[in-house]
């Protein structure tokens, strides 16, 4: 389907287009990360019982490893999808990622369990998870690039923050769907019950598909294509001109492990160590993400006023400080306090860095390599998030006293992210057309 590209210059916006781009990014990210997060919840609560011979500690580690496999595929997907995103356009690649994620998620819900086909069950689960990883590699980078390039110069962080706010929406939906599942009797929960959230993804994929297909390419990309400024090998140009920025993004992207600690690892810690009901921990995730829906656009607007770096660094430091507080609160047995601390930790701390990184990272690169730079830098950095549950579980983080290991791990990655951010150029006053130009 062809669309007319409006006659605009980079950094300007056709009336309503930035909002439409932000909405399309929000919905697309919500769908992608609904699919992604239901896998995380299932890896913590369901898959050790379904896809492995016995639900013991080794099964928990292997289950978390299947969660991490998507992050292995993501750098590969970043190179492939980044190339095509910078060559043929953001919108076409984003349509592909949406369909791939939805299809892989639906297939997971159809897989036979270990009792039926033995080790073929986890093998097929890993394959489907790799497809999810390939899809996710292009989703946030493409959505962030498209929204940033549609946004007016002085509101880029606000509009791009909706990409990550969509991620929170997907996590909320995933948790809400899983709450009734974990309350089911075991024979139903480990039978057909856990499959329903995976099948439901088909509905939200269709909604996002029809909204996203009407969005045209951003003016900055259209201008570059018109002037024959599209890179033939975007990755080669990226590594030649922006290798330091790619390295910087990789280290900054370690901050994403905080989300994995909060949304996946803490669920297992609360269940196994603090003996908190799984329904309560899922509601903690919902409450924190609901508040983050409101705070992330505020942090995005703040970054448009005072800069990307101070907001991002605040989010990293706050996350490091609040991780041990949150984990010790889970052991307190005080449910209202758990909710309060979870909201402060996630929605008032981590959400600052989460809201700002799409503009912060994207503004390091020029239009002709932005998709590749965002995709490759973030996806390599996100490997830390993908294997955080496996690493920390192997360190004893889900055993008594494991809050120490989890807190040290999280503190180290937050410090790396903050220090890397300090070395970046501040770009909030730079016109879109001049971003990434030396």
From TrEMBL:
Q: Which domain of life is it from?
A: Bacteria
Main location per UniProt?
membrane
Signal peptide start and end residues: none
User: What topology does the record note for this protein and the membrane?
Assistant: Multi-pass membrane protein
Which residue ranges traverse the bilayer?
A: 33-52, 58-81, 93-111, 117-137, 158-180, 192-211, 246-268, 280-299, 311-330, 336-357, 369-391, 403-424
PROSITE patterns under this entry? Answer: MFS (PS50850)
Question: Does the keyword DNA-binding belong to this entry?
Answer: no
Protein's cellular compartments: Cell membrane
Name the UniProt key words of this record, in alphabetical order: Cell membrane, Membrane, Transmembrane, Transmembrane helix, Transport
Q: Which residues form the Major facilitator superfamily (MFS) profile domain?
A: 21-429
Question: What protein name does the entry list?
Answer: MFS transporter
